[in-house]
Amino acid sequence: MSPTSTIDPSPYSCIPFLVLMLLMAFLPMSGGLPQRLWEPNAGKAVVVFILSLVVWLYYCIAFANQGGVDAMASQLIDWINFVCLIGSLYVVAGGLYCDYQDMASPNLNTLILLFGAVLTNFTGTTGACMILIRPFIHINKNRLAPHHVTFFIMIIGNVSGVLTPLGDPPMFIGFLKGVPFLWMLQDPKIVGSWFMCVFVLLIAFWLHDRRNYLAYIKANASFIPADISRKVVFRGRAAAAGFVGIVVIVFVQGLPVWGTGNDRYVNLGASAILVCLTLSVRFLFGDPECYALNLFSLRPLLEVVILFFGLFATLAPVLGYLEFNAASLHITQPWQFFWTSGALSAVLDNAPTYLTFASLGAGLYNASFNDPQQVAVLLTIPSFARILEAVSMGSVFFGACTYLGNAPNLMVKATVEDMMKNEGGYPERAVPNFIVYMAWVLPHLLPLFVIVTFIIGV
Predict the structure, then answer these.
(1) Are 160 and 406 in contact (CB under 8 A)?
(2) Of the candidates 457, 327, 311, 438, which has an alpha carbon nearest to the alpha carbon of residue 393?
(3) CA distance 303 to 324
(4) What is the pLDDT of residues 120-131, one digit of tens each?
(5) Degrees (nearest 5) of the Cα angle 253, 364, 70?
(6) Using CB atoms within 10 A of its CB, is residue 184 exposed (0-12), middle (13-18) or buried (19+)?
(7) CB 112 within 8 A of CB 132
(8) CA distance 322 to 8
(9) How many CA atoms lie within 13 A of 191 on its CB side?
(10) Which of 43, 165, 213, 376 is deepest in the core (most CB within 10 A)?
């Protein structure tokens, strides 16, 4: 095998990607004028346009006779497919409303997180977070604490999304590149690591929540435990049917019946169907009151769309450079891929990190991760399969380490802060800042990552 592209970009062409990553990491907490300019989506769009234009011009001029235009068109199509799936999950989730009228016990909270961990692999981390975050915060309103937010993000927003392409953006990108839909579910190391991480985190959450719950009862002697049997509210049948439709569309999209060489057209066709399904749920069959109760807004989705346009565009030279220079980077073992992809996913968005290190692994075999036919061959090589296991888990699991690691992290934080501002009555400092968040999650996650390292194999 050999890389499908003959483009060997200069390492300097990776600078726009690095600049965008740094801006995403530091401008949101920089304060002053830079932060105010960055916060509106229009400010992000200007930065993304300039950095993307640099890469587009570089590829279309420097590699005009080597497929530069086609390489960038491929990145554009991947972005379209990615946005259509993420957007469908987000919009359909807004039409599903569930609530519980009394304060939850530790047992109920833990069951909700377990349900969310399973739901994530059908609706995506974004979809599951948007479905569950408002009712989860509402039922814990009187005793909301940092552990509610941090464990919600760790379990539902990140760790649990590794089992299917619907679960987390890195898995869907792998699916678009040719990784079979059920590959993660059929991999015992990934499934075993999922069970271990999810259940250890659930136990840790229950212990924290029980202590918080008992302290609240002690401080409020008149408190009466809630009766769950009469208090559950669930609305949004059209949205629930929409989720089933999304799962079916994505699954059929990956079936081998479409033949080789048609992947681009099949993916675009599936994206068009997803858009039609989403518009139908939102404007024809969905319950408008559910969207109103969820305070539904497209602003968070628009932010993701803008940023990922820049990520996909500026990532092209990074992928090309890694494919041609994989051996010289001396990252060859699965554990190295796990920790390096994870370390970057903790501070950068995990979707481009996954693609970067998957491409690096493919480059070790003189292959391209951008070619579904080559990916199919690579997955038959046990050593590469171990590398992809490591990259998959590293990119997804480490995304929980900071607010910057995965798109739902900041969406959850912003949603809870918005609820506290609009509704009132919440305890102060219930939403941890960047530093406190890391102080909560790292002691719980790092020991798990060490165990996963041995599961992958050193």
Answers:
(1) no
(2) 457
(3) 32
(4) 988 788 778 878
(5) 50
(6) buried
(7) yes
(8) 9
(9) 7
(10) 165
